[in-house]
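Please go through the protein record below and explain what the C-alpha cells say about the fold. Record follows.
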Amino acid sequence: MTEQHEFDKDYWERHWHQAHHDRPGAMSTSPAHPYLAREIGALVPGSALDAGCGAGAEAISLAAHGWQVTAVDIAPVALARAAERATQSGVSERVRWVEADLTAWAPDTRFDLVTTHYAHPAMPQLAFYDRIAGWVAPGGTLLIVGHLHTSEAGEQGHGHGHHPPDEASVTLADITAGLDSSTWEIVTAEEHRRTMPGREVPLYDVVVRATRRP
C-alpha cells in the first residue's frame, strides 16, 4: 500500500529535523537547483517569491544575483538555517523570511518572479501551482520545478531518499494544461533525468517557465 503524506507543518518539521540530523552540512552548503540559473539568469532582477524555500539555497542564489526575495516556508527549523546561511553569504538584507502555510497565506503584492522547487504543501499539487501563479505580476515569470511522475521513477525511487509519493508528483502535461494561453506564454516545458554525486538513483524533474502576458 502506498504511504500517504499530509505535508503539513508537523511533516515538514520532522523532515527538516531528520535532514539536519542525517546531513548537517547539506543544509548549509547544498547549491541551488541547476535549473534556476539556467532559466532565470537572463532576467533583469526585481522582486521574487520563493514558495516553499526550505533551507534557502534558491532564495540565497537569487539574492546574490540582485533579486529582492520573499522566501516562504512552513518549517521554522528550515527557515532558521536558511537565515543563518543568508547572513554568512552576505545577502541577508535582500531576503525576507516568512514562516507561513502556503495553503492559507497570500502576499499583499505581486512579484516579478515566483518560483518553487519541489514544494509539497497540504493541498493538491496542481492546485498549489495554480495558487502561486496568481502571485506573478503582469510581464513576470513563473518557474516551477517539480517531481516528474513517471513509471520509471516510481520503480527506481528518488526524491527525499525515495521516490516521491504520487500526490507530490506531476506530469509536464498536467502543469502546462493549467496555464491558459491567453494569460501565459510558456517559455520552457521540459522533463529531465539527472544524477547527483553520492546518489545511486536518478532524479526525475519537470521544469516549466512561463511569462504572464502584460
Summary: Helices lie at 9-22, 26-29, 34-40, 57-64, 76-89, 125-133, 151-156, 172-177.
